[in-house]
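Field: COMPLEX_INPUT
Field: COMPONENT_COUNT = two
Field: RESIDUE_TOTAL = 642
Field: MODE = joint
Values follow.
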Amino acid sequence: MRPWAAAILYAVLGAITFVVCFPLLWAISTSLKPKEEIFRWPPTLWPENVTFEAYRELLFGSSVASAPGAGVAPSAYFLTWFGNSIIVSVGSTLISITIATLAAYSLTRFRFWGQRSVPYIAILGYMVPSVIFVFPMFLTMVSLDLTDTLFSLILGYVCITLPFCLWLMWAFFRGVPIEIEEAALVDGASRLQVFRQIVLPVALPGIIAASIFSLIVSWNDYLFGRVFMNSMENLPLTVGVMHFFDGTHVDWALMMASSVLMTLPMAILFGFMQRHLVAGFGAGAVKG
Amino acid sequence: MTDVVMQGLSKSFGSNTVLKALDLRVPSRQFVTLLGPSGCGKTTLLRLIAGLEKATAGEIRFGDRRVDTLPPGDRNIAMVFQSYALYPTMDVARNIGYGLEVRRTPKAEKQEKVGAVAKVLEILHLLGRKPKQLSGGQRQRVALGRAMVRRPDIFLMDEPLSNLDAKLRAAMRGELRRFHLDLGTTTVYVTHDQLEAMTMSDLVVVMNEGVVQQIGTPEDVYGKPANLFVAGFIGTPPMNLIPAQLRNGVLTVAGTPLPIPIPPGAPTELVVGVRPQDVAIVEAGSPGAIPGKVWIVELIGSERLIEVELAPKLRVIAEVRATHRAAIDDVVAIRPDPAHLHVFDPATGQAISL
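Field: COMPLEX_OUTPUT
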């Protein structure tokens, strides 16, 4: 590449990186500032006095005794919300992946009515924005008496993640040659052994890619949590942290510290799974 | 000692009939090749024997054991696939040993057997590798090892050499033949390559459109083709098939009588078959030779192919020594070797024995 072309390329990439990273850096910076410094003008890019007060309050409870009669401070719920978010995103992902994997396998391996159209109908369903589903689904939850339960959120997330997971796994299984399964059958393996020992290991990159997709969607969701849930102790993290806003003030330090902590699990997951993710989406892209 | 007997075996996919009431016996310990053009049903037949397809009608027996109702794993067969079908996530040792693993063979015994097979196939140094780290020839060997390790009653091979380059293919032909002689396992081998069929087989089963055309030794199918299909399919360059007439009991090709006695009762319209190697080019006007004009001359190494036009749209190929010179449009004559003539009834396609 010519030097000036490289310079332009790096300039563009640098600008994009800055735009993407700046909010995250700003959040980290703000979360480490004492309250007085947050609103100082001109703002400091990096805190002059680093404090972990916001993190301490979120993780180990409020240091400021709440005024009598003021009830429990929202920050006291942080760990509960965090737990809720983990339960619903892991739960919905497990269900989504199990159904998607089994369904995609049968769609590519067995002959039955609708075999060809199901994956396309699924991807079409995925293209409908979830805002359109959320109220009909809420009414369904009401009639099932499931509102304000973590289970209702799990069901909701399964509904929005399953179509794409199914599509991804379907594209993946289509690329797995049937001969290796036949070879295993001739070797004496049962159908179940073939699936567990031959098919699943081959499909692992696809399963990981679909899982990460499903985890991110359900972890980051705000809409379903906002509509389905109302008790403080049942909120997912995304909805819960909005309680750091109230009519009179916004606790930016808590807000930003929560955001940073909320990003951590996904960032760690990405770090470990990146390699598989690329392989999984790559397979889907080529074969789909 | 396991022979394979198929009786009245039919297979249809929807309205498409691939095998038509096929009867075939593969004798024990023999190397039998199913040979035919693509779509002739040879692979389907192999998959029926393996149990990967269910027959529409008929039965299959291994010895006196009826197997067409058994799943593939209970038939004690091993199969080598065209694509090798190695398990991509397992290393070579586990690929070879997987059949023993699912049969719960003790670990020590399994390792010993895998090691023994790997030694024979000269792939001991590859046991820790994954299939994608192997070359085509090495994958081929692993696939063979996986088939050999279980000591199956029957080997089934579906065009196992077709993905190898020409040189390796020639070498593997010899090796497969040696393995078969050493192990003595009944083998059913599918190919569309007549060279493989001729060089490796005890018996060749020539198939076309779901029907067995001829079963015989390589010498038989080459030297005594049972019908027009076999005559035209076996041999390179293919046999010349020339329309001929019977006039007053004398076989006549392009107006020239040939001194061949034809049994009584033969139809008056016939097809004469003669291999290019059995056609001599002689001087025009030689007695008993059919006159013609050289159409094209092709040198193929030690031989030369001379195509002679006897009449409009009636051409015969002669394979002669490369030293034989001929030019396009030379006036020559051909003389088929009467000892190597084949005569067919064009209505039925069947050979008429002379």
